[in-house]
Amino acid sequence: MADNIDTFTPEVQSAGLNSSAIALFSIQYLDQRTQEKSDYNHSVQVMNVL
Question: What pTM value is reported for the model?
């Protein structure tokens, strides 16, 4: 699957006063043969980040 990654976009959103953050991952796969694209978005809450 890693061979077909077209774009990978990591981001971090800090939550502010409550010392946690959210890591966002956006991956787009591209099938070279059919040019079909698949988008996957995932978020992870990370607790106690300073």
Answer: 0.69
